[in-house]
Amino acid sequence: MATSNPSVFLLTVNGQIEGANFPEYDDLYCKYCFVYGHDWAPTTGLEEGITQITRKNSQSSHRLIWNFPLETTFKSTNPSGWPQLVVSVYGPDVFGNDVVRGYGATHVPFTPGQHTRTIPMFVPEPTWRLQKFTGWLLGRRPEYTDPKVVAQGEGREVTRVRSQGFVTVSFHILTKDMKKMGYDIGPSSPANSASVTSGWSTEEQQ
Amino acid sequence: MMHNVCSPVLQSKGESLQQQEASFEPASRLQGLRDRDTVTRFDREGLPNAEEAYNFFTFNFEPDPPDGSERSSVKRRKQRKTADRDEDRGDEAEEQEEAEADEENEEENESEEAPLVQNEEEDLFVIDQSPQDFLEVKKAVYIGYQNHIQRESEHLFTPSFRTPTSVKLPENMKPRYLEDEGLYVGERPHVSLTNENILENRILKMEEGMKWFGDDGRIMALPDPIKESSTRPPLFHMEEDVDPSLQTVYRKALKSKYANLYIAGAADPEGDYQLDVDVSGLIFSHHPLFSREHVLGARLAQLYDQYLTRQHNNLTGHLTDKLNGLRSALRNMLEIHGGQSLTQAMQQRFSEYSLEITTRQLRDSEQEKDRTLLKNIVKVWKEIKALREFQKFSNTPYKLYLRRENVDRASDEREHEDEILAEVVELEAESEEDYQKKLAEYNKQLEEWKLWRRKQKAKKKKKKKKKKGQTHEDTEDEDQEASESEGPVEEGPPKPEPPERLDFDSIEQQVREKASRIRRKPGEAILIPELSASGNITASELCPSETARRQDVARRSLFIKILYNDKEVSRTDSRSLNTDFRVHFGQIFNLKIVHCPQSINLQVFEEIGSSCSLLARVFVPVPEPSVVTGNVPVEEYEFSSNQRVMFDHEGVGSVPLSFEADGSNKQTLLTSGKLSCCVSWGIGEDDVPLAPPVSQQPGGIHGLGRLDAVTYIGASGLYDMKKIGEWATQSRLDPNDPKNASIMQLVASSGEVTAPEYFRLEHLQEEFNFVTDEELERSKRFRLLRLRNQEVAEFRNYKCVPALEREVTDKVFQEYEKRLKEGEIIDTKEHLDSHRALVAKYLQKIRESVINRFLLAKHHYILSDLVIEEEIPSIILGLNLFKLAEPKRPLKPQRKERKKVTAQNLSDGDIKLLINIIRAFDIPIRRPQSKPGQVPQSAIQSSDWFLNQVQVRPFVEVSFQRTVLQTTTADGPNPCWNEELQLPFAPNGDYSNASLQSVKDEVFINIFDEVVHETGVNDKDRGKSIHSWVEKHWLGSVKIPFSTIYSQSRQIDGTFKVNTPAVLLGYSKERSHGANGGYDFMRSLSEGTFITLFITMEPQLVPGETIREKQFDSQEDEHLLQASERFEREAAQGYPDRPCVSTVIDLNGKTVFITRFIRPLNPPQEFLDAFPNNPQEATALVARFVSLIPSLPDRVSFSGACDLWSTCDQFLTLLAGDEEEHAVLLCNYFLSMGKKAWLIIGTAIPEQGPTAYVLTYEQSRYLIWNPSSGQYYGQYDTFCPLQTIGCLVNADNVWFNIQEYTTPMRLSLDVTKANLWKPFFSRSFSHPGLSSVQPEELVYRRTDKAAAAELQDIEKILKEKIMEWRPRHPTRWNRYCTTTLKQFLPKLEMSRGQDVTEGHRHELQSLLGENRISGFPLHLPFSEIRPIVEAVYSTGVHSVQASNVEFALAVYVHPYPNNVLSVWVYLASLVRT
């Protein structure tokens, strides 16, 4: 199957959205999606999804656990526009309206192996105090028009945000044919070449 | 723990407090107490403690004398302490409390402290000393002013005096003024004298300060770099008019030769270069520590060296051999010719002879040198020997042996004698020759002299004769002659002396003398000196006077620093100086180099103890790349130092020194020596020299070698201007230096030398480039990526750029390149007229720039683009509640808002265009076929004919993107179809907003009349059969551009005026029955056919967002812009459906206030002249002219980006614009014609959306003009297309409609009423006097009749097209009819297509006789050929199927000024009946 002259390289992202740390909120769920450049295309797996609602432990722990699996494979010709995972966390406010509790994004790690990422989350701030009040009252907090804007840099200068919490994501990354196409990602040793013959290179991160 | 200090009254309270606290106290604090029960503690210890404490404190507070109390108290405390310690060890808390208590005491009684501390064994109390104990308080000391100054003068330095020159120069040196010596000295930068003095004084105080002063005793300074006048040309930045000579010209950056000082390829591991520096050793030819013997020894060695080299060269021997050879050759020659003196031979002999002379002289001098050298060697050796004897020890190991080679005396003498004889003979011959020459000379001179004598005598005689009797004239002549001859009398040649013949004896004498001087005497042994260093040096113990010197020598050591490009790279080990003053290093340094070699410098350092001093510098040339390690001999480089050294021991030092006893014959010996080293390029592993290529050593050689022009280019090259120029650039001559003036002039005149005119900020940038720019340009993949990033239309959403270069095909770029090419070439087929072609190109350019601006603006985000936020609740929200209470009216259904669909989710075939054709009014009706000659009597017909006549059977055909659908056929002139047609829409697969907006297709809605013809064919067998065929006759059309439909957020709903041709053959426009005479005027205005339509798209698309116009920059005043924003915002809030415009964007993309566009402008003069007496006609003509300028919606031209307003002159140049431009132009014309005119911003039916009309006030009536059709309507005209009036604009103000209604009919158009019209400029914000953006006057080009005639080609094109559209049928053209039609067209133009006389129709019909004719003239403003073709196609004339049909087509183009053209196309089909 492995051709000698590949025209695309593959990136498999396995992992899970492990959980979050939002000290003030409870009953949260998380939406995720991948944002990638023009030269990327998903081949298998879900590009976006939504987790179950989780509650905190009644004990003191602040952790919210989702353990929501991610499994996607991308093919690409160009590392530009490397996939980013965009997560947005929602949960009910005092009146029971679903409001956004945080947006965050991280690049999918480049190097094969296991990685854990803790994504700091933030939400846009209302422009006026009054809006803050009415927003709270009506359960309509400011939201991004598209959660994907957190993966782009353009236009962010007009927004103001507030930090909210953290989401922890773990990734298991496999790549194929990247080296053949001339992209050397991270630590790869001659010892690694044995696994290259199988087409997939995995390397445990030390 | 303040409770212990409390008074005893509070004790119990304090205890309870303590108790409380104990429970709260942290565990660590109580660790010491853990073992014990707290209760017992209070029982036992609490009470006595309190008592004691009470005593203690009360005691302290008493004013007791210190000496009595202190001891007892301390004792007591000590007692208590010891007691306590038994009970509660480790109760530190308690103790600390006490310590605190002590502190309290200290404050009261300081004197108690000292003994307390001394007595106390514990350190605890030592810590508690207060800072006051160390302070000493004194009163401020006054220091007198004089003292102050004195003290300051010790530390401060006030350099105000001028430093004398002598201080600034080394001792005993006179200032040297280079300028006086004729050297070039640049002008020094100006420094004020005071500052200079300060600086000089400061420098003089500094260490090594002297080196800052030049030879002339002034501080060294570079020439003043400041130019007197500014070299940059002044920039007068007026508008855009930059002086053409100051226009910046783009020059591609050139690769500088010197920009790259690094060796290319040095970065990669294979390309490192290695320079091997081998420092083998050092020999001093003089050193300050030389003893006298050393000096002599060194001289001896030097002389011996010289001797050896002379021996080696053996010049004397060579010259002797040569001389002998010459002599024998001469002898042979003489023998052959036997003494005959042939002229040629003689000459040859002479030349050779002269050569021989020089050879002999050379040999003699060489022999003499040999002799003196030998003599000197012997002499020096003797001196050494004498010195050794004198000082009774030897310091040097030199020994000179003189080897004696005995010779055969007899032969030697003979040889010697022969030699002398030969020389004598030669000299004799030579002198003989000389004598002969001189003799000849003498004889000649003698002859001359004699001649002169004779003449003289003769003259004297003559004079005597003449003086006796001669005429005056003669005497004059004679006088002259005499005076001539008299001159030479005095200056006559002296009598020559006869040459002396040299005495042969004296010659021989001379020769012998010389021989004895320069040659060894005959029979004397040949002396061969041999120098050896085998002698013994006397040990130091034996020569006490020498010890000091030898010790000094032993103390010294030397090392060498290697400086590469003036940076120290390494140094040798330090080696001690030997007694023979030779130092051996023998070290090889491998320098890995990155920079180009420029200089290699070895510095010799001498170390005495720990201090070291620089002895000398040796500059080693950079080797050629061919010089590699292994094949280079070690070379010796001489060095010397000019330091003066003197010693008090035997060392001679480096000072003038005399070896003579009387001190005469002083010699200055300076430290000097030879350094043997070699520099070469290293060799790599595979024998590759690690040297950079020659071309990359720009700086390496020019340091010294290139400055000399001759060595650089060679003597022959001096005539080559180019080479000189090259040399001049590379040696970097100082162009200011007068020395170089001539050469610079020379070079400048040939234009070869130019100083680099650029400044490179990052000259190392190239080093970091991946690949060269050309390669980057060539890369197709990179190009693709770049184009995508630039959002070029073709690549905007290109997916998956191939990973490898080879996978990118050229095909990808084809379309893009084609478009680029098309931009350059103007398709002349599309544009018949070159002017319009240019305009099209210009428009394209504007469009591109606007799109670019738009794309740029798209990247500017505002908050609402990114964040959805709840609006601040407003009162409008509350109003929605009231809507619920509105009465439901099921019989008047309202169209409901549908859900909007974003364009992304669409695919082909999803979008449909829904066209609901409801009804039409006033469709022309068929005219009964009148027989030729029959007089049409409308009066008779009108009653009965009207009722039973099949008037017209109209149906509607809708064509869009060449899809044609039609309705059913209805009856009568006012049909009602109420049908919905669905047209598919295919926007080329791209559903983005930009692409949808740029769809230029138009929806044509044509009304046809279905005519059924029946022909009875009498077939005798089968009876009568009827053939019928259907013909459709075009009656009129409405066209709506797709962009209008798309941009309308809801739908298009309304009644449209149908464009009907001016003349419809076979049809007539019937007035509504019961025509009322009183309405006649109004009727004529409303004449026309109307159709009610409803058009929308399914699904409803979100229209492209309108660009935020405010993001464009502006030159308007900030206040004005704010006011305008406020005005528009208020208008939009109060009346959201009324368009309000106060600022617009001009063609440059700048925001301009709208009133600036209004200004009276002159219409073409010929219009005014055409109807001098009828202003109404002129007005109509002007309106027609404006309407003839083709209309081009901005939305189409600028892809919906924005609405751009062009000024009238731009509009007339572009000859394209939308309603605003038409309206502005018309309004300006009206103003110049003296009318009261306003611009109406409102909405109208066909345009659907904000549009502009013109309002005039004439004869106490308001007229509304449609600028794109040239028609006018009264205010109360029901069919006026203008539906809403939002605001009125004139040059002074903008009025916004704040009345209840918007339709013109129900409005009061009196703008002076402030309660009906809200003015922009009011008393609170007055008109700031905005100047107009319009030109003062419009200049028109004359009508070009010829150009118009050329356009008659349209006829040919159209005919071809019609034939093309009828591929299965022959198309016959009725030429007769065509010519007839052609005559009508100019008439139609004259009458502006309005009141068509019945006459010409009859005329036509009478001419064409039995042909059934149906046809019409089409009238179009000319823009390009395509719309005309489209219009002709949409009429469907070509689709007549009848076999015997003939066509007629005539085209007439009427030119108006400024290339505005009116095109008439007369189309007719004829069927022979």
UniProtKB/TrEMBL annotation, chain A:
KW Magnesium (keyword) present: no
Indicate the principal place this protein occupies in or around the cell: cytoplasm
Q: What GO terms fall under cellular component here? A: MKS complex
One record GO biological process: cilium assembly
For region Disordered, the annotated ranges are: 185-206
Pfam annotation, one family:
B9-C2
Q: Which residues form the signal peptide?
A: none
- Where composition is biased (Polar residues), the residues are 189-206
Name the protein family.
Answer: Belongs to the B9D family.
Any idea what job this protein has? Component of the tectonic-like complex, a complex localized at the transition zone of primary cilia and acting as a barrier that prevents diffusion of transmembrane proteins between the cilia and plasma membranes. Required for ciliogenesis and sonic hedgehog/SHH signaling.
Quaternary state and interactors: Part of the tectonic-like complex (also named B9 complex).
Designated name of the protein: B9 domain-containing protein 1
Automatic annotation (TrEMBL), chain B:
Q: Locations of Polar residues compositional bias?
A: 9-22
Which Gene Ontology biological process is one annotated for this entry?
Answer: protein localization to ciliary transition zone
Against Gene3D superfamilies, the record matches this protein to: C2 domain (2.60.40.150)
| Composition bias, Acidic residues | 89-118, 474-489
Q: Where is this region: Disordered?
A: 1-118, 460-504
**Every C2 domain range:** 895-1056
* Basic residues composition bias: residue spans: 460-469
Q: Where is the composition biased (Basic and acidic residues)?
A: 32-46, 492-504
Q: What is one Pfam family matched by this protein? A: CC2D2AN-C2
Q: Which PROSITE patterns match?
A: C2
InterPro entries tied to this protein: C2_dom, C2_domain_sf, CC2D2AN-C2, CEP76_C, CEPT76/DRC7_peptidase-like_dom, DUF5523, Tectonic-like_complex_comp
What's one GO-annotated cellular component? ciliary transition zone
This chain's protein is named Coiled-coil and C2 domain containing 2A
Q: What is the lineage of its organism?
A: Eukaryota, Metazoa, Chordata, Craniata, Vertebrata
